[in-house]
Amino acid sequence: MANKDLYVELCKFYEFMLGEIPQKDEFIKALKETVTEDDLRVLFLMPFNGAIFHNDLVKKAAKHGIDEKTVKEAALRMAAKGYVLTYETTRGRAYERGNPVFMTEQQVRSQEKSQARSIFANFMDSMIEADSVANPNKTPYYRVLPVEYTLTGKIPDDAIRLDAPVPDQRQVLPIDVVTDMVNAQDVVGVAECFCRKARAVVGKACEHPLETCFVFNEFAEGLIEAGLARQLTKPEALEILRHCEEVGLVHNVDNAEGHLRTLCNCCSCSCVIMNAIHHGSTSSGAPSRYVVSHDAVKCIACGACIDICPVDCREIVDGKMVVNITQCLGCGLCVTKCEQSANHMEPRKKYPKIYPTHKALWGQIGKESIVSILKSKILSK
């Protein structure tokens, strides 16, 4: 990295994962306000992808004349601002480079008003409002989890009584049910939704709740330690998730089966994932393993499901409800709002691959990004 502009290099690293960054000059200006070159020298000793353990990082740093105290202090400063994720393991403390969304969201969540925070918020807002998505990967980062009631028939609140048929329980897997997914994680934390927080910072706040972004395991430990998330018990987490369903938010979890890092609860008015899906992207979010089935005989075309649908896949034509099944995310929100029980969930015949762990998922996304960038360079020659 000698004689290279480290801020430009950091921007290149972020673009590898995200595609071209809009208003790049402003973005780099914000980087310069929030992280020093000395700290970036430590960051660039960390691997491009995955973690490095403390002792290994210290050895690498020593070859560049950087002592252990400097490494530790730099890592902690960057962790507090999202440039680095750090957490304890059985092999000691581990460090990872933060991806661009991870870094930006921590800056936006900061309670301290600054020009850099405003720039990062505007960066997120530009992504939310973009009319096209150019991610270098093909595998979706996230997938939808349906409202649990629509799969299990178990009603968490006696105030809600709907008679909705549920799928064959032999077809419902733990990876489909939000309670099972959360209970399987070791550590659970919650932070403010960075999409809605960014919109609020730029004066475009929506009415949906803010504290709805769940983090798990080592990801949760790192953010809790940095003061960027708060730890929850499992019952506390499930209570927040139920409220998210009640107000019409869509569960988007890592596109993985087991060891997770994040679970977002998204609205169509402020969410970058939902916007990408709305504009036809298949590389950001995948539908659930289920799709809605509509009973036209029971339906009275009251419109309650139109109001709650996050992807506008319903409309009333000549007094009858028309459903665009190909656009359905399988979130199940329409099922929860239909008093005629005209909607129910069915297993989807085909859906994107779900990876065993977050690590396996991002390993695949990294490979796809490299191939995409190499192809782009070859074609541009």
Q: How far do the termini sit from each other?
A: 25 Å
Give the tally of β-strands: 14
Strand order within the widest beta sheet:
7-5-6-9-8-4-10
Q: Helix segment count?
A: 16
Radius of gyration from CA coordinates? 22 Å
> Quick check: average pLDDT?
88
Shape: globular
Q: What count of structural domains?
A: 2
Helix content: 40-55%
Beta-strand residue fraction: 15-25%
Class based on secondary structure composition and strand pairing = alpha+beta
**Main beta-sheet annotation:** 7 strands, mixed
N-to-C series of helices and strands? HHHEHHEEHHEHHEHEHEHEEHEEHEEHEH
Query: Any low-confidence stretches, pLDDT <50, length ≥5?
Result: none
Describe the structure.
The two termini are 25 Å apart. The model has no long low-confidence stretch (mean pLDDT 88). This protein folds into two domains: 6-129, Orthogonal Bundle (Arc Repressor Mutant, subunit A), CATH 1.10.10.10; 142-360, no CATH class. Strand 8 and strand 9 (262-266) form a beta hairpin. The chain contains 16 helices and 14 strands. By secondary structure, the protein is α+β, with helices and mostly antiparallel strands. The strands form four sheets. The chain has a seven-stranded mixed β-sheet. The protein has a three-stranded antiparallel β-sheet with strand order 1-3-2. Strands 11-14 form a two-stranded antiparallel sheet. Helix 6 crosses helix 10 and helix 7 (115-129) crosses helix 10 (194-201). The radius of gyration is 22 Å and the shape is globular.
